[in-house]
Amino acid sequence: MLSCISFWSTRHGISPPDAPADADPLETTLAAVAEAGFDGIEMCIGRPGERGVFSTDDDARRCAAIRQAIDDAGLVCETAASGMSWTSNPVSEDADVRAASLAEHEEALRRAADLGAEALLYVPGVTTSPISPGERVRYDHAWRRVRENVARLLDTAERLGIDLCLENVWNGLFYSPLELAAFVDGFGSERLGVYLDVGNLPGLHQHPPHWIEILDHRIRRVHVKDYAESFGEGQYAFRELTRGDVPLVESVAALRSIGYDRTVTAEIMPWRPGLLADTAASLRDLIHPEAQGPDATTPQRMAGAR
Fold it and tell me: Which residue range or ranges hold the Xylose isomerase-like TIM barrel domain (predicted)?
């Protein structure tokens, strides 16, 4: 497995507290990621003008330049991620919003292919969510629209030779691995798969290793982060690796059991000084425990004990 970090988790990512405006976000980000010891980076694609270095308006030349910079930094970039569905819902009750979102994601697939990525993370829509609290889409309507959208996006993905990967998120859709597996199987396409985020599952009262075993070969890519909640106090939070209750070691073991050997990308926000180095070390220990030696302790409790 390859240890990677999301661009959103870097100083110039989704919630940078003090990123200087005059710095080159690509150059400084790639240098920091390489210095931390990651194998690669996941580039994140957004709309023109949004924070970041990669947008749906970038042309093939710009994408090639980004890819060359990644290669020159000694990093791999096998995946790209889009979060545009949170603000432009592809299953919205508004037909104009749905059309705009679909067009944006077709462009995201093209830009990801121009970058040389092998897979694009796609949030298939939102029925309701704490992330997009204003959304209220009836489930059967959303299901029909997801099918229509995926069919169209798959046509583009197949022509481009890139995987379209549905992420399990807090979006009110696909909260069962059986439902998600059946949905993917229903298309019969080698280009459709799952982008599994193990850190999103405990908050839905689901055990990540079980999802991994059920989804099996449908899992094309993996995100990791930690999560903790206090049920009696009604509090929850996503956390940095090894600082929560996600069974990370068990999850990696489950990934090995299904033969998964691709990218494992940490997606942790917000950035803080030292986050990349700490995350790289935790992730490296998690996916390559043999490198620690026979007497080393694992980065997280083996059976959930804190």
Answer: 30-283
Q: Torsions phi, psi of 86, nearest 5?
A: -70, -30
Give the CA distances from residue 6 to residues 80, 172, 236, 237, 306, in Å, rounded to whole numbers and listed in that order: 9, 23, 22, 19, 27
- Taking the complete model, does pTM exceed 0.70, yes or no? yes
- Residue 127: how many CA atoms within 13 Å on its side-chain side? 15
Q: What are the pLDDT digits (tens) for 169-201?
A: 999 999 999 999 999 999 999 999 999 999 999
**How many domains, the chain?**
1
45 within a domain of the structure (yes/no): yes
3-class SS at 237? Answer: strand
The dihedral through the CA atoms of 9, 14, 18, 20 has a sign that is positive
CA distance 55 to 235: 35
